[in-house]
Amino acid sequence: MLEGFKRWLTRKPPRDRQSGASAEPGSFNDWSRRAQVQIRTPRDGHGVIVDGKSGDVPWRLEWGASQRPYVLGQELRIRAALPLPQDLQAVVLNRPLQEAIEKTMFEQYVEGVQTRLDTDTPAEMRWVVMYPKLGRAELGALQERYAAAASAAPWLQQWLGGTLGPALLALRSDPASAFVLMVNRGRMTLRAELDEASAAAFEPYLRVFEIALREARGVPNDAAD
Predict the structure, then answer these.
(1) Best exposed site among 33, 35, 69, 92 by fewest CB in 10 Å?
(2) Structural domain for 82, as ranges
(3) Residue 130 included in any domain
(4) pLDDT tens for residues 20-66?
(5) Cα angle at 2 between 86 and 188, to 5 degrees?
(6) 143-181 pLDDT, tens per residue?
(7) Is residue 56 part of a domain?
(8) Distance CA 150, CA 155 (A)
(9) How many domains does the chain have?
(10) Angle (nearest 5°) at CA 122 between 118 and 128
């Protein structure tokens, strides 16, 4: 899969992609006290784990080695479980990544020898080509920076139609860096390329994630039918 992302991976000068990057939990003490989150180092000693709550919903933030082929360098992951329909699948991602995924999947599965999507391909990559995407008119102000696809377009439109849309636009992330926000089997996950491990670097993504959680809980489940 990394070979298929050759152009994506060479879009910027090479950077340190060492899996041994680490963060010092003590540097987060102020954030821990202020936000009432628990911060620790993973068992392997590399990266950082933060546990917190958004209202009554627990979430976990992890920063460390990338777990996806489209994320260069270090990866930020935030996850939480929600009472959403188990068959609901939705993804919002930055537009350059969407275009790179579509090109990669076309070359690998249409022009190449493979004839079907395999389970080794990350789910969110499969959804980009499997599910209907919102049109630019439906995305509105999001259309220049983001793309979105889902198994249920009405649910996706309502999710983005509230305060989540403006929050995504306010996120000051590098447009050439991977960003994915997804819902799958009652779990929400945010993934982003982020080399810096600090409260200041994490908090903008966490704000977007918490807004996404709140907006998802407000969308009627029947919108996913």
Answers:
(1) 33
(2) 3-11+66-219
(3) yes
(4) 455 656 668 888 888 889 998 888 878 899 999 999 999 999 999 99
(5) 20
(6) 999 999 999 999 999 999 999 999 999 998 888 789 999
(7) no
(8) 8
(9) 1
(10) 90
